[in-house]
């Protein structure tokens, strides 16, 4: 799994789809297979000697961290911190779920002074048994902060039952106007789906999230689970949309029950395009 530098630590994230046979060249392996840094970027070398591929999407867009808070009593505000050092210019995503028809989100702020905008929501499920709502917020081009120094605070207009807050950080996202497309839907079944949205550029980061009355049992096809909250059972997941097209965030739930599901697609930073891969050898610099 590829690695990305994050402060003084390396963070793993999925090898998104640039590094595929269609984008890589077969090479004849040298006798000795050296390990070499590529000017601050980490290449991926298949040590079988059969293939070398450097994925610029994987290097450009990286998952950095996630945290969650799920108070089990009604709250007028919920606070939680980014526990790992934050890098200036990255993207923060805040997912807010709750279960009160009378409550709405008042503010989303953090102690670093980043400006949060609503990406999608609130998406609402309601029947005679109750109500579930969810919204996704984001802050682009964030300020840097030490680990634990930046605390996100979500306030509600009145005490909200079952608040479920998930916060994520990503690198490699456009620092201005990063939001591409969104979708949101509600239903009752064993499979939550945001419904489709068509991206306008290749290489979007798609963040999906649900709020369910039952339990999310895993991520949808093509997505990576970042967290399933405990004990609420709500997911935050992501994938890279390698081509322009129609995408939906999905996730299985069990047993069958009500859910709200949303997705928000964010554009990659300028220049984050797949490039031709090329082999390197010890005698090439």
Describe the structure.
- This protein folds into two domains: 3-60, no CATH class; 62-266, no CATH class.
- The longest helix has 5 residues, at 56-60.
- It has one helix and 21 strands.
- It has 285 residues and is an all-beta fold.
- The protein has one helix at 56-60; strands spanning 3-6, 9-12, 25-26, 44-45, 51-53, 62-69, 75-82, 91-98, 105-110, 117-127, 130-139, 150-160, 164-171, 179-193, 197-198, 204-212, 215-216, 224-228, 235-241, 246-247, 250-266.
- Strands 14, 16, 17, 18, 19 and 21 form a six-stranded antiparallel beta sheet that branches. Strands 6-13-8-11-10 form a five-stranded antiparallel beta sheet.
Key structural traits:
disordered C terminus; 285 residues; 51% strand; 6-stranded antiparallel sheet; mainly beta; 2 domains; 5-stranded antiparallel sheet
Average pLDDT metric: 82
Strand content: over 45%
Outline type: globular
Structural class: mainly beta
Helix content: under 10%
Radius of gyration from CA coordinates = 20 Å
Number of strands: 21
Strand count, sense and barrel status of the largest sheet are: 6 strands, antiparallel
Q: Termini distance?
A: 25 Å
The tally of domains stands at 2
Order of helices and strands: EEEEEHEEEEEEEEEEEEEEEE
Query: Total helix count?
Result: 1
Parts with pLDDT < 50 across at least 5 consecutive residues: 1-59, 273-285
Break the fold down into its secondary structure elements and pairings.
Blueprint: E1 3-6, E2 9-12, E3 25-26, E4 44-45, E5 51-53, H1 56-60, E6 62-69, E7 75-82, E8 91-98, E9 105-110, E10 117-127, E11 130-139, E12 150-160, E13 164-171, E14 179-193, E15 197-198, E16 204-212, E17 215-216, E18 224-228, E19 235-241, E20 246-247, E21 250-266
Antiparallel strand pairs: 1-2, 3-5, 4-5, 6-13, 7-12, 8-11, 8-13, 9-12, 10-11, 14-21, 15-20, 16-19, 16-21, 17-21, 18-19
